[in-house]
Design a protein that fits this description.
By secondary structure, the chain is α/β, with parallel strands linked by helices. It is 38% helix and 13% strand. It has 4 domains: 3-190, no CATH class; 201-390 and 403-527, Thiamin diphosphate (ThDP)-binding fold, Pyr/PP domains (Rossmann fold, 3-Layer(aba) Sandwich), CATH 3.40.50; 554-798, Rossmann fold (3-Layer(aba) Sandwich); 807-933, Multifunctional 2-oxoglutarate metabolism enzyme, C-terminal domain (Rossmann fold, 3-Layer(aba) Sandwich). Strand 5 and strand 6 form a beta hairpin. The N and C termini lie far apart (94 Å).
Length: 939
């Protein structure tokens, strides 16, 4: 129905805000089935006039805004339009139904400890709607309430509403704008009143899960008293919940599932869901470890993978390795799943499932959660929706007062930003937990949207087993001490209903305990692993000097150059873009030297035509922040886009470039997850300016730099960070090179500062072709992108060799050299131009293109030419306490001749990366160049 039609109709009637629920329900029912509404209302809807020729038969979602505005009318009395046949009580009944759908969760029985005060919600009371028990026998039309009939007595309806929306499940979904999604959820909840009938087999599976969760915690507590294990006790339902999720996933077509979770309950999930042998866990408690990792990590950070048998086939499960930085693993999991989906050729998100497990304080407190939700529906980062489980034990370490923890009613309110349905569920009702788990997965698979399950539970011990919670939560822990464990609560229920005997339940516990004693896998569904992921074997055990061939013939480069420099005639490029492409045509033939953008593009072209997939993300990566790349041509006629790198050959690898969301932390974490799951692809993330990369510092510190040493996880992610001092101030000059160099050790990653187009070409090809997968951090240029001296020939690209160091390029005789200046990056060209201007033939300039791992062999070879020199200088643009000086000077001191001096030429130490005044910048730049090129008079 068109908004204008509705407005005209409303203004011509006696309807007001109090009728909104009634009209909504009837009109939705009319659209679904015209015969389902009373004759009088059907005539009203059928006879609605057209306004300005607009057809009235349009879905209700288009006029929601009009109804929402009407609903703001606080006047509660209802006057039914004369002649409409409407009944005042009927209107009130439909309002009552809507009230439970909107607010029933506020009165649900969610807290197993009974600490929460279930607030009085007047909307849910009969008298609020001018109804009473006197109306209980009267039949009313129930609108869209999904009970299988058009009408029912008010008494039965009222009880059904309370059972559905105020029992162990509190469902929040009315914030969703899609009528289809809301109707689907209403059907699933209301048709069984949120209490489905579980068969004995399903009850047994739930009981086994609770028995395992409880049994492991008690076993560990007795065997290793006082040892940190971050017990799951109180949230035991997580184990049967996850197993239910994996079983249903397998039956729904999922082949893989990636789980991300923090420390709480992690050991329990490892043993009782993923099937890690208890004996391995016991060895870790005893301090034993495999000597394969240089540093290793604590047992509750380690990951695991296994195959889980379901009726629909095996599901390969992977538990992501996790640092103690809460919630950062979530985008890592999403990236890993996206890589698996891409590898499987699945654009629907059905074959791989992301599952993230959160804490109640962290999910609302950590900003990366919001960032990750924002990724969920975007082109670059969507993976068909995630199942997000909050283990809500109602306390964060020692903080439990809601006013101290968050500003929202629920810890899950953040999920409403992406219109996720949210299910709050009492963890002491494991059948309710299983039910919402089924709905959550089915909704995710159908609508490709994130779903949140708020598992309301408690924490039987302190933050860890050595902690004393009574000091800060005395009343809570008095209740917890008296509260029976979830297994016993469910066991009593099963005994009372006659499903199982006390002896059968005891036998299950004994059987599980015996399995722990044996030390073998206690999860019956675990199968021998088959090949699910890419083969990492060829990337293991290699070091930086491994041989590789990255050469490409000049003829092939010309052929590819022609393809990447052209686009169809129907695409009318913007004038500056057209000029860039026209220049690239000349570069492709060798008539013009290659600039940075063309060399980078040719690197991608050669890599893609070798069958390698390329994925690049960044806030402006399609065009390039500095207008140099233009991988995407935008037609000025109709906005259509064309990517030449996607049209190279029929059997080429995929080339994808995405302009990402405005985030660093979540996006870099996502790309790390992608790269750790897909070694055969070239995965790149580009910062808008390198200065902003520190928004992802947690990812660089906890994953990129140390993931291999802690967890044995290889990663070939390439990070492009625009860096250089051009007078743009402290926020647009420095990618904080010093911070990356400080993270370098154990040959954990590469830090490069390429200074020519041929170098960036060779560096990118090396990252793809060489059988080594370690992170590559690149300080990329800004002004050099179009510098007249920063050009290369096709012949220079052809050999594909990246030079870790570049010796003097001018015709300067080594024996005449009195000073050697070492440098990296843009400052080289300023030094070169000034030296040529001054005709100083006694100074050699040596570029260090790879700062880590430091190129000792190349340095030794170059130094053989300058053994007579005693005056060496390191020149940098950055302040002395930043840049490469402090982290790299010892390498130079070790390499220069004995007795020689290494001096510093650069900006003085500064708290800020750069000054904010162009005039000051210019003077500083001139001074550091002059300092590097001024040889003191020895006389």
């Amino acid at each position: 129905m068109h908004e204008g039609v509705m407005k005209a109709w409303l203004e011509s009637s006696h309807l007001n805000g109090g009728n909104v629920a009634y009209v909504e329900e009837l009109y939705e029912a009319y659209l679904d089935d015209a015969t389902s509404v009373p004759d009088e209302w059907r005539e009203v809807f059928e006879q609605l006039p057209k306004v300005n020729g607009v057809d009235v038969e349009v879905k209700h979602s288009e006029v929601r805004a009009q109804f929402a505005q009407l609903a703001k009318n606080k006047h509660r009395e209802v006057v039914v339009a004369e002649g409409s046949g409407g009944d005042l009580k009927q209107v009130k009944v439909l309002q009552l139904i809507n009230a439970f759908r909107f607010r029933g969760h506020q009165n649900a029985n969610l807290d197993p400890l009974g600490i929460w005060e279930r607030e009085r919600v007047r909307d849910l009371e009969l008298d609020y709607h001018d109804l009473s028990e006197a109306d209980f026998e009267r039949e009313f039309n129930v609108g869209s309430f999904a009970v299988g009939s058009d009408s029912m007595p008010l008494g039965e309806l009222y009880q059904a509403l309370k059972t559905t929306y105020c029992g162990s499940i509190g469902a929040e979904y009315m914030h969703i704008t899609s009528t289809e999604e809301k109707r689907w959820l209403q059907q699933r909840l209301e048709s069984v009143q949120s209490r489905p009938k579980f068969e004995k087999e399903e009850k047994l599976r739930i009981l086994k899960g609770l028995t395992a969760a409880d049994g492991l915690e008690k076993y560990l507590g007795a065997k290793f008293p006082g040892a940190k294990r971050f017990s799951l006790e109180g949230g035991d339902a997580l184990v049967p919940m996850l197993k239910e999720l994996i079983h249903r996933a397998g039956e729904s077509g999922q082949q893989e599932a990636v789980i991300g979770m923090a420390h709480r309950g992690r050991l329990n999930v490892l043993v009782n869901v993923l099937g890690k042998n208890p004996s391995e866990l016991f060895d870790e408690f005893a301090g034993k470890h495999k000597d394969t990792l240089s540093s290793g990590d604590v047992k509750y950070h380690m990951g695991y993978s296994s195959d889980f048998a379901t009726k629909g086939g095996n599901v390969h499960m992977a538990l992501a390795f996790n640092p103690s930085h809460l919630e950062i693993v979530n985008p890592v999991v999403m990236g890993s799943v996206r890589a698996r989906l891409d590898r499987l050729g699945d654009t629907t998100g059905i074959k791989a499932l992301p599952i993230t497990i959160h804490g109640d304080s962290a999910v609302t407190g950590q900003g990366v959660v919001q960032e990750t939700f924002n990724l969920s529906q975007t082109n670059a980062f969507s993976c068909g929706g995630s199942i997000r489980i909050v283990v809500n034990n109602q306390v964060g370490f020692t903080t439990s007062k809601q006013d101290d923890v968050r500003s929202t009613d629920y810890c899950t309110d953040i999920a409403k930003m992406v219109q996720s349905p949210i299910f709050h569920v009492n963890s002491d009702d494991p059948e309710a937990v299983a039910f919402v788990t089924q709905i959550a997965l089915d909704f995710r698979n159908k609508f490709k949207r994130d779903v949140v399950i708020d598992l309301v539970c408690y924490r039987r011990h302190g933050h860890n087993e050595a902690d004393e919670p009574n000091a800060t939560q005395p009343l809570m822990y008095q209740k917890i001490k008296k509260h029976p464990v979830p297994r016993l609560i469910y066991a009593d229920q099963l005994i009372a209903e006659g499903s199982f005997s006390e002896q059968e339940i005891k036998a299950l516990a004994d059987e599980y305990r015996n399995g722990l004693d044996d030390g073998n896998c206690v999860v019956s569904e675990i199968q021998p692993e088959t090949s699910h992921s890419s083969d990492w074997a060829k990337y293991v055990g290699h070091d930086w000097d491994v041989d590789y061939d990255a050469s490409v013939s000049v003829e092939k480069l010309k052929e590819l150059g022609e393809k990447v420099a052209n686009y169809p005639e129907e695409y009318k490029a913007q004038s500056r873009v057209k000029k860039i492409y026209d220049d690239r045509k000349l570069m492709a033939t060798g008539e013009k030297p290659l600039d940075w953008g063309m060399a980078e593009t040719l690197a991608y072209a050669t890599i893609a035509t070798e069958g390698t997939d390329i994925r690049m993300t960044g806030q402006d990566s399609g065009r390039g922040t500095f207008f140099h790349r233009h991988a995407v041509v935008h037609s000025q006629k109709d906005g259509a886009t064309y990517l030449p790198l996607q049209h190279l050959s029929e059997d080429q690898g995929a080339f994808q470039v995405f302009d990402s969301v405005l985030s660093e932390e979540a996006v870099v974490a996502f790309e790390y997850g992608y790269a750790t799951a897909e070694p055969t692809s070239l995965v790149l993330w580009e910062a808008q300016f390198g200065d902003f990369a520190n928004g992802a510092q947690v990812v660089f510190d906890q994953f990129l730099s140390s993931g291999e040493q802690k967890w044995g996880r290889l990663c070939g992610l390439t990070i492009l960070l625009p860096h250089g001092y051009e007078g743009q101030g402290p926020e647009h000059s420095s990618a904080r090179l010093e911070r990356f160099l400080q993270l370098c050790a154990d040959h954990n990653m590469q830090v490069c500062v390429p200074s020519t187009p041929a170098q960036v070409y060779a560096m990118l090809r090396r990252q793809s072709v060489r059988p080594l997968r370690r992170p590559l951090i690149v300080m990329t240029p800004k002004s050099l992108l179009r510098h007249p001296l920063a050009v290369s020939s096709l012949e220079e690209l052809s050999n594909g060799v990246f030079h870790n160091m570049i010796d003097e390029v001018d015709d300067i005789k080594p024996e005449n050299v009195e000073r050697v200046v070492f440098c990296s990056g843009k400052v080289y060209y300023e030094l070169l131009q000034e030296r040529r201007k001054l005709e100083q033939n006694n100074i050699a300039i040596v570029r260090v293109e790879q700062l880590y791992p430091f190129p000792h062999d190349e340095m030794k070879t170059i130094m053989e030419r300058y053994q007579h020199v005693t005056d060496f200088v390191w020149c940098q643009e950055e302040p002395q306490n930043q840049g490469a000086w402090y982290c790299s000077q010892h390498h130079f001191v070790d390499a220069i001749p004995q007795g020689a001096q290494l001096k510093y030429a650069g900006r003085k130490a500064s708290a800020s990366p750069a000054c904010g005044y162009m005039s000051v910048h210019t003077k500083e730049q001139q001074a550091l160049v002059a300092d590097a090129l001024t040889i003191e008079n020895k006389g």
